[in-house]
Design a protein that fits this description.
The complex is a heterodimer of chains A (about 120) and B (about 110).
Chain A (H helix, E strand, L loop, with lengths): L3 E2 L4 E5 L4 E3 L2 E2 L6 E8 L6 E7 L7 E2 L2 E6 L4 E6 L8 E11 L2 E6 L3 E6 L1
Parallel strand pairs in A: 2-12
Antiparallel strand pairs in A: 1-4, 3-9, 5-6, 5-10, 7-8, 8-9, 10-11, 10-12
Chain B lengths: L4 E3 L2 E4 L5 E6 L6 E8 L3 E9 L2 E5 L6 E5 L5 E5 L8 E8 L6 E3 L3 E5 L1
Parallel strand pairs in B: 2-11
Antiparallel strand pairs in B: 1-3, 3-8, 4-5, 4-9, 5-6, 7-8, 9-10, 9-11
The chains are: A mainly beta (about 120), B mainly beta (about 110).
């Protein structure tokens, strides 16, 4: 089974509108971390937001918020007031703790295009 | 504050050769992790180092190895290169709380 599933290969959003990028995960661990990264065409990976499995409140970082639904094992990224510079690939990732250390898993990514 | 520095940015190697990639983390970060990104397999975790010790390793053959020095700089080595090793290799460093990882710009390796 896939550890991280991003079902939206591509998304379009009008500038200044909000958009939700979906992410579901699979783990039997109690302690894990969820991340979202942005990868523009330049190739660098930019950290956006982090949610710990024990965090009771949804994480927010500026225009980014993470809609964390633990029972459903989903960690959707919400980008408010989209900007042209938000056009990029977005990756959802999970850090899972094993008895030998951390394992990291990434989704296949969602390509977001912001339309003027 | 300097970011994560990866060298070289681009590399072309021949099948059968070996290659060493370097990663200098953000000052004060003791955790460094490495990832491979290819169009076919996506992003995959290679290994993570903390205080010179490998914490864990992803599902890669023994040809992929790494190490971390006392100043937290890390190197990744791939021996007996194969065409399929062509990829963007990314490293990331993090604070001890591991709640955020800062990536370098990557090394694009092409094996011919």
């Amino acid at each position: 089974a896939q550890k991280i599933t991003q079902t939206q290969p591509g998304m379009f959003v009008q500038e200044k509108e909000a958009v939700t990028l979906d992410c579901t995960y699979d783990t039997s661990d109690q302690s894990y971390g969820l991340f979202w990264y942005k990868q523009p065409s330049s190739g660098e990976m930019i950290f956006l937001i982090y949610q710990g499995s024990y965090d009771e409140q949804n994480a927010t970082e500026g225009r980014y918020s993470l809609n964390f639904q633990k029972a459903r094992k989903s960690a959707n990224l919400v980008i408010s007031a989209s900007q042209l510079g938000d056009s990029a690939m977005y990756f959802c990732a999970m850090r899972e703790a094993s008895n030998t250390g951390n394992q990291f898993y990434f989704g296949t990514g969602t390509s977001l295009t912001v339309i003027p | 504050k300097a970011g994560v520095t990866q060298t070289p940015r681009y590399l072309i190697k021949t099948r059968g050769q070996q290659v060493t990639l370097s990663c200098s983390p953000i000052s004060g970060h003791r955790s460094v992790s490495w990832y491979q990104q290819t169009p076919g397999q996506g992003l995959q975790f290679l290994f993570e180092y903390f205080s010179e010790t490998q914490r864990n390793k992803g599902n890669f053959p023994g040809r992929f190895s790494g190490r971390q020095f006392s100043n937290s700089r890390s190197e990744m080595n791939v021996s007996t290169l194969e065409l399929g090793d062509s990829a963007l290799y990314l490293c990331a460093s993090s604070r001890e709380d591991r709640k955020g990882y800062t990536f370098g710009s990557g090394t694009r390796l092409t094996v011919v």
